[in-house]
Amino acid sequence: MSSDKIDQISKEIESASASNKEELEAYRMRYISKKSVVGELFAAMKDIAAEEKKSYGQQVNEVKQLAAAKFKELIDQVNQQENQNRGLDIDLTLPPTQVPLGGIHPLTATRHRIIEIFERIGFNLSEGPEIEDDWHNFTALNFPENHPAREMQDTFFIEKNPDITLRTHTSSVQVRVMESEKPPIRTLSPGRVFRNEAISARAHCIFHQVEGLYVDENVSFADLKQTLYHFAKEMFGQNTKIRFRPSYFPFTEPSAEIDISCLICGGEGCNICKGTGWVEIGGSGMVDPNVLENCGIDSQKYTGFAFGMGIERIAMLKYQINDLRLFTENDIRFLKQFRPLL
C-alpha cells in the first residue's frame, strides 16, 4: 500500500468532526474498529516487502495514534455540546418544584436510638430467624414441656408441626448467641415477634422487641440496674426516674418489671399511667442457671442479666402516641409528623 494512501487517511482523520453520538460512532467504525481503514493498513503488512516493513509499520502506527487522539478529542467535544444543550432546556425563571420529603418511621427511629445507646456501652448486635423451633423459643429458656409458663405467651404454631413456631420473643436469639459464643457475652437482639393476641390500642399480634444479654464472671443485679438507669436517662431524659417491681419469668431469677416515671404527666398521675405516675416498659432479671447450662455455659463460673422491652411501647412514650395501631396503618397524616426524624 502506497504512502499516498496513508497520507490521505491521515488528512481525513485530521479534518474529521462530530457533533453528536451518531457521528462519533461513525468515526469510530471508520478509523478505530478492527474493520476500519486503519485496520486494513495493518492487514496489508503481509504484502509489504521485507526491507520496507519497518518504515511502513512506523507510518501505520502513527496513523493509529492520530486516530485515537482525534477520537478522544471528538468525545470531549460531543460531551461538551450535550451539556450545553441540556443547560438550554432549563428555565431559571420558573419557580422551584416543591417535592415532599419522606421521613423515617417512628419505630425505625426508636430502634436505631435504642441500638445507639447500648452500642456505646459495649453491646454488640445479634439477629436470628423469625421462624423458630421449640428448643430455642421455649425449652432452652426453662419452659418445661406442658408447663403453665408456656401459656403466658399465645403462640402461632406452624401448621402440622407443633415444634416450629413464629418466635414469641427475641430471647431465642440470645440462646443462639450463648450456644455459639463463649463468655464474656454482651449482646442486643432487636427484631419482630408474633403472639396470638387481639389487636387493640395497646396490643398487636405483630410487634417489635429489643432484648439485651450480659454474661460474664461476677455479673450482679446491680450491674443490671445501672445499665437500665443509663438507658432510661439517655432515651427519655435526665429527669426520668426508674423503678423495679418483683415479677416472674421462667428464664430469669430473680426477675423484675421495669417502670419509668410517666413522661406525659411528670409523675402526677394521668390516664396513660392509670393515675400511678409510672409506666411499664419491659422485664428484666438475672439469667436462670438452668438457661446457662442449657446453652453450654458453666453456671458455677458465670452469671448474667437479661432484659427485654417493646419498641412500640418505647416509641409510644417517647412521642406520646396513645394508639399502637397507628404504627401499622400507614396513615400519611400520622407519618408526616415524623419528617424531622430525617
For this entry, give a set of tags.
342 residues, alpha+beta, BirA Bifunctional Protein, domain 2, 3-stranded antiparallel sheet, 11 helices
Molecular structure report:
With 342 residues, the protein is of the alpha+beta class. It has two domains: 86 residues, no CATH class; 236 residues, Bira Bifunctional Protein, Domain 2 (BirA Bifunctional Protein, domain 2), CATH 3.30.930. The chain is built from eleven helices and ten strands. It has a seven-stranded mixed sheet with strand order 1-5-6-10-9-8-7, sandwiched between helices. The chain has a three-stranded antiparallel sheet with strand order 2-4-3. Helix 2 packs antiparallel against helix 4 and helix 5 crosses helix 10. The longest helix has 36 residues. The chain is elongated. The two termini are 69 Å apart. The mean pLDDT is 85.
Number of structurally distinct domains: 2
Please state the average pLDDT score.
Answer: 85
Distance between the termini: 69 Å
CATH topology of the largest domain: BirA Bifunctional Protein, domain 2
Q: Strands of the largest sheet, in order across it?
A: 1-5-6-10-9-8-7
Short description:
It is built from eleven helices and ten strands.
Outline the fold blueprint.
Elements: H1 3-15, H2 21-31, H3 37-43, H4 53-88, H5 106-119, E1 124-125, E2 131-133, H6 134-137, E3 157-158, E4 161-166, H7 171-180, E5 185-194, E6 206-216, H8 221-236, E7 242-249, E8 252-261, E9 278-287, H9 289-294, E10 303-310, H10 311-319, H11 332-335
Helix pairs in contact: 1-4, 2-4, 5-10
